[in-house]
Amino acid sequence: MTIKVKLRQKPISKGRKSLYLDFYPPIPHPKTGDPTRREFLGLYIYDKPKNPIQKQDNAETLKIGEAIKQKRENFLNKPEIYSQYEKEQLRIKELGELCFLSYFKKLTDKRKGANRSNWHSTYKYLEAFSNGKLKFIDLNESILEDFKEYLLTTKSNKSDKVTLSQNSAVSYFNKIKAALKQAFKDGILQSDLNGKISPIKAEETRREYLTLEELNKLVKTPCNNEVMKRAALFSALTGLRFSDIQKMTWEELSYVEGDGYYVKFTQQKTKGVEDLQISDQAYGLLGEPQESKSRVFEGLQYSAYHNKHLFQWIGAAGITKDITFHCFRHTFATLQLFNGTDIYTVSKMLGHKDLKTTQIYAKIVDEAKRTASNKIKLDM
Known about the structure:
alpha+beta
């Protein structure tokens, strides 16, 4: 009996179609042995391509799908030549010929915002490392260790005079690991390569913070950008990131009788929904309430020009530390721990998903206390 094989498309999420083979009559599933009419290829096309690149990508993917379909039809209709095991081995070989770069690019296109930007940067480094050619069959522990070393030694795409920072290398290599994990789930990789390779160890960075005395100096020091000053002090009192402060609207704020003020928002970075209680003093930095959809810190911007006002303000207060806006979040965490708040509570207030992220602040406090204890010395 001749088995007919058709290449078909199934609409899925985010404007894509998944390619699969349709068999008639049904064939035994290679793993379970149960009759099946479908075999998904782990290949995707754009439902409505928006530009020439997407159209070309569709054409290349469909070409691969047609080739797989034709080979599968040949295998199935020559049982005297190919055993079930041989057919499965040939299928694995076909998957190995797929381009890992193209697969990674498709995963990149699914991302949004800053995360997509990081995936795109990873793609550019991977493309440069592989000279634009990297098949799944070429992936192994050795080549992935080579790429790890490449990230740790290559120049930054932003400047050929500067080596890519270790923490950027950490982030980019983690994207590769995520893609390998997904490819294993999709059945393209036959082994879990992600589980076999270790991530790049993050470099411990110094997290600068302000003392309470320095914060009070800033309160009394004028700033050329008043909204920047209020936002920075608000961050020191709440631990909120610049991105969450900048987008905050009046409808996110509420008052609970006998309990105080709250801000309910979705974190820009982690997308976690937070319901954070803030102090009366922090609320006092917000000014007069406006319309619900209005930004609380209207006019707050992040740029070299606006940051100049921040640095001038800090310098005018007599503070010589290298302070950025994010250091006000560090200040909140460090001062909370200094004043006895337990690390679990601080972690929740910062919106951290992992307690390990918060532990760096505990280390800062421990070091500061150790330094302070060594300042008292007797002439023995």
